[in-house]
Amino acid sequence: MKVVRSIDELEPARRAIAIGTFDGVHLGHRRVIEAARAPGLRRTVLTFDPHPRTTLGRNVKMLGTVERRLELLGELGVDETVLLHFDDDLAALDAEAFADSVFHAAGAEVIAAGEDFVFGHRRGGNVDTLEKLGFDVRPVPLLDGVSSTRIRGLLGEGDVVGAAALLGRPAEVDGVVELGDQRGGTLGFPTANLALDPCLLVPQHGIYAGSALGHRAALSIGLNPHYGGTEQRIEAFLLDYEGNLYGERLVVELWERLRDEAAFESEAALVAQIADDVERTRAAVRPA
């Protein structure tokens, strides 16, 4: 999949465009992208970074990094993706100016979007506007109960199984492995400490079972209360893995929330609980 960051970088072509922020690339998003198909037209996704609502002054915690979004779009067989920087200038364009500078300039003939899609200054345009401007518009009905907002809510409650049902895949945490306290190694469970982009949503604190790099992974998200921690930490123990991950990007799937964080009466009790978490992680089932 080819990725460009402006309309000017596109080769001249006739296009079927799916437009949306596509945060999480969930089941509803996939229906929109699937609708952007037509014989002889290049299948193109047009998405935004940052989230338009962030530019407009609202705080939105994202379900995934831009890098992960592009990877997921590539897995859907898209020919190309335009990652537009959503800034104040783009937000100031009225609907017709937006359609001219984006859709017409890109060679769009077919436009697929969610049926509630709006665009342009003060949300002045919608799918009816695009039809009036001469595009073949494919409004895609919303999937009942499926939205990025709903998925954020489920993850905030620690319901990774419910989130997976809406995503069509397990939820994930995605970050770069950094040096931590190195306490896990002394306990017999060396962990990879993930540094996440502050724009990303962090699931409810707790202990999770999941996977990374083809290995089962037991993941701790929280403050490490046993050691009196005050800073949020995300620590993954990859079962049966040997290697140095420092500085590497690590994507960890979340399969099951095992328990809350806790402080223990002794380090021996902590080690025993971690051993139980590891065994439960071995038995965990990847959510469909």
Written description of the protein model:
This protein is an alpha/beta fold and 288 residues long. It has 2 domains: 2-140, HUPs (Rossmann fold); 171-283, Beta Barrel (Elongation Factor Tu (Ef-tu), domain 3). The protein is built from 10 helices and 14 strands. It has helices at 27-35, 52-55, 66-75, 88-92, 95-106, 127-132, 148-156, 160-167, 183-187, 267-283; strands at residues 2-4, 15-19, 42-49, 80-85, 108-114, 118-119, 125-126, 136-140, 171-178, 192-195, 206-212, 215-222, 233-238, 249-259. The strands form 3 sheets. Strands 1-4-3-2-5-8 form a 6-stranded parallel beta sheet. Helix 7 (148-156) runs antiparallel to helix 8. It is elongated. It starts with a strand and ends in a 5-residue tail after the last helix.
Helical element count? 10
The total domain count is 2
Instruction: Give the fraction of residues assigned to helices.
Output: 25-40%
- Return residue spans where pLDDT drops below 50 for at least 5 consecutive residues: none
**Overall CATH class of the largest domain:** Alpha Beta
Strand content: 25-35%
- Say what the CATH topology of the largest domain is: Rossmann fold
What oligomerization state is this entry in? single chain
pLDDT averaged residue by residue: 94
Per DSSP E runs of 2 or more residues, the count of β-strands stands at 14
SSE string, helices as H and strands as E: EEHEHHEHHEEEHEHHEHEEEEEH
The largest β sheet comes out as: 6 strands, parallel
What's the alpha carbon Rg, rounded to whole Å? 22 Å
Give me the side-by-side strand order of the main sheet: 1-4-3-2-5-8
Which descriptor suits the 3D outline?
A: elongated
Q: Whole-Å distance between the termini?
A: 26 Å
**CATH superfamily name of the largest domain?**
HUPs
- Category by helix and strand content: alpha/beta
Annotated CATH architecture of the largest domain: 3-Layer(aba) Sandwich
